Amino acid sequence: ENKKFEELYLSGQLEVELTPQGTLAERLRAGGAGIPAFYTPTAAGTIIQDGGFPIRFGPNGAMEGEGVIKAHPREAREFNGRNYILEEAITGDFSLIKGWKADTRGNLIF
Fold first, then answer.
1. What are the strands, taking DSSP E only, across the chain?
2. pTM surpassing 0.70?
3. Tell me, what's the pLDDT at 89?
4. SS (H, E, C) 19-32
5. Comparing C-alpha atoms, which of 67, 69, 87 is closest to residue 77?
6. Is the pLDDT of residue 76 over 90?
7. Could you give the CA distance from residue 24 to residue 2 in angstroms, rounded to a whole number?
8. CA 15, CA 55: separation in Å to the nearest integer?
9. How far apart are CA 75 and CA 38, in angstroms?
10. Residue 43 near residue 85, CB atoms below 8 Å
11. Beta bridge partners of 102
């Protein structure tokens, strides 16, 4: 429920990183392909670029002090007159893949 989510986030019990769905998908794809980072126009010129949105608040909604995790500012560049920010890739520890049949070496038939 949104009210409970808001309560947990503002009390510092929940970490939240705002990432648009397409950027999240590309961060995962880039990580799987061994690409450490990429430029995207999404969020360029916003509070996300400046690192002004906290990932985790401190106790009682504090924005400074113990327990606060601040978002880092993103590197910004301009290409062909358009602004972009640098997003780092996300690498997973494991993956779930659905297949019809698998052998002991991990080969799948879909």
1. 37-40, 76-79, 82-88, 101-102, 108-109
2. yes
3. 97
4. CCHHHHHHHHHHHH
5. 87
6. yes
7. 21
8. 5
9. 11
10. yes
11. 108
